[in-house]
Amino acid sequence: MSQAPVTFSFRRRAVARLLGWLAWLAAPVVVAVLIRKHPGRRIELSESDRAVLARFFSRDLLDSLVLICVDGIQPPRWPNSRAARLLGFSDRSILSSVAGITLGRVVLIDVASGPHNRSNHSASPELQDRQAFRSLVFHELVHVAQYRRLGMRGFFMWYVRGWTLAGYDYFAIPLEQQAYGLQGRFIERPGENFSVEEEVDREI
Ligand SMILES: [Zn+2]
Predict the structure, then answer these.
(1) What is the pTM of this model?
(2) In this prediction, what percent of the chain has a pLDDT beyond 70?
């Protein structure tokens, strides 16, 4: 094996560790800014939404959820595009389209952006599409389960490490792949019951 990949890997891992720490420190501030910028309203899950989600998540996890609806999430942009390019980002936006953001047990849902789905960017006004709403909440609840498993700092270290080592490809982040995978099971096999927390514990 040549030396180059080892050096590259070492540098990537160092960057991943640094970015993980920065993300952990910055995330509460970013979420606070988002809530301030997009005043939202806290909502409770309806009885029917909760009944569906209770087939996949523990009562304890659902009880802990703080769900906030906002109308449009504008993700933070890099203050300096040159710095972004130096770090290897092609886009100035950290996330190009965001339907939900989860920090611990706090979930921000963008009611205007529809399902948290890579192939569907159509608008879903208000909460008319219950299945899309449930699917989006399901995805974010997987992240809540991941936070519970890894802890706040552990989540950011894993998330950013996965993102960095995957060449900053959002869909290649292992924690996102797990969330999309379980979300896919939820959508494609509606009759199946499984415990997301057990799946998360087994895989992480
Ligand atoms: Zn996600």
Answers:
(1) 0.78
(2) 74
* Neighbouring residues of 146: CB distance < 8 A, sequence distance ≥ 6: 155, 158, 175, 178, 179, 200, 204
Strand, helix or coil at 48?
A: helix
State the distance from the centre of ligand 1 to the C-alpha of 1, rounded, in angstroms. 35
Calculate how far, in angstroms, residue 4's C-alpha sits from the geometric centre of ligand 1: 33
CA–centroid distance, residue 2 to ligand 1 (Å): 36
Stretch (H or E) spanning 42: strand 41-43
Answer yes or no: is pLDDT of 148 > 90: yes
Domain boundaries, the chain: 3-203
Cα separation, 32 vs 53, in Å, equals 27
Do residues 193 and 53 make contact, with C-beta atoms less than 8 angstroms apart?
no
